[in-house]
Amino acid sequence: MDYGVSDATGGNRQYRAIKILLAGGFGVGKTTLVGAVSEIRPLRTEEPLTEGSLRTDSTSGVEGKTTTTVAMDFGRISLRSDLVLYLFGTPGQQRFWFMWDELAIGALGAVVLADTRRLADSFPAIDYFERRQIPFIVALNCFEGARQYDTEDVRRALDLEPDMPIILCDARSKESAKEVLICLVEHVLMAADQPLSGIA
Amino acid sequence: MPSNEERWLDAEAGPVVRPYALTQGRTRHTGESFDLVATVRATRAFADPGSLAPEHLSVLQLARVPTTVADIAADVDLPLGVVRVILADLRELGLIVISVPMVMAERVDKHTLREVLNGLRSL
């Protein structure tokens, strides 16, 4: 019994927090989308200083410093008092991937937000979710002035499976952002009905 | 959101106390680790306000209603690592319970997925 419902009125249900990840390249509109559909909250977290960043970020004078603060936003959507969705925009740069690993555990699924002018920026995220068998969909943020592509062209360019949903969106619009999340949950539900389909 | 002024004032100027000074320099919390969306809830145990640091008291206050690690970190505006150390301290004192989200380590079940779907549709 997963739900922890302890009375018939539903008044004592277990608080359930569900994670959805939002990934994509820098400046693709992740924060815009989170802000359009949810109450956005700032989070400060720490990145361990790697050997690479120790070379690039001067730490002279603070030799004992092993972490640096990274700002990150998350969105909160209360579906009911005991059922809350948390949207985590994952920092695009590969050096933040240690954070993805934590965020990905137990997540419902992920949305890869892509810009048709810079499709290659979404390769790392797609690769990440495919390798970890985390269900995801691709949402194309339709920037003004960007050429509108056929989703099938994008599917070929990103080498995505035929049943992988690709949805056009406007990250600024609440309705559009909602459609993106609905599309993801529907996709995850469908995959749950066909347990073998998600396994490569 | 504050605008990008050239002068940093108040919170923009950064913390007055270095964050990890609040945890006596500890950067790792004790005990079992917990997820960003793990639920935190205060127990009925008596907390002696005099024995707790102000930050510990603020966190404890926030946990009077069930909340998550991420929400607490956003509310108290402290780095996540610091909040985790404080939460682990409070857990050790028996003042809070941290529940592993039910979906940890496995996929969200279909019943919940349908509830999420219905919830999103009626937003």
Question: How are the SSEs ordered, and which strands pair?
Answer:
The complex is a heterodimer of chains A (200) and B (123).
Chain A (H helix, E strand, L loop, with lengths): L15 E8 L6 H8 L1 E10 L2 H6 L10 E14 L2 E7 L7 H8 L4 E6 L8 H9 L4 E6 L9 H8 L7 E4 L4 H20 L7
Parallel strand pairs in A: 1-4, 1-5, 5-6, 6-7
Antiparallel strand pairs in A: 2-3, 3-4
Helix pairs in contact in A: 1-6
Chain B lengths: L38 E4 L11 H9 L4 E2 H8 L3 H13 L3 E4 L10 H12 L2
Helix pairs in contact in B: 1-3, 2-3
Question: What does this protein look like?
Answer:
The complex is a heterodimer of chains A (200) and B (123). Chain A has one domain (16-45, 74-193): Rossmann fold. Helices cover 30% and strands 28% of the residues of chain A. Chain A is built from 6 helices and 7 strands, in the order E-H-E-H-E-E-H-E-H-E-H-E-H. Chain A has a 7-stranded mixed β-sheet with strand order 2-3-4-1-5-6-7, sandwiched between helices. A 3-stranded antiparallel β-sheet of chain B has the order 2-1-3. Chain B has helices spanning 54-62, 69-76, 80-92, 110-121, and strands at 39-42, 67-68, 96-99. Chain B is mostly helical and 123 residues long. Chain B is globular and about 45 Å long. Chain B is 34% helix and 8% strand. Chain B contains 4 helices and 3 strands, in the order E-H-E-H-H-E-H. Chains A and B meet through strand 1, strand 2, strand 3, strand 4 and helix 6 of A and helix 2 and helix 4 of B.
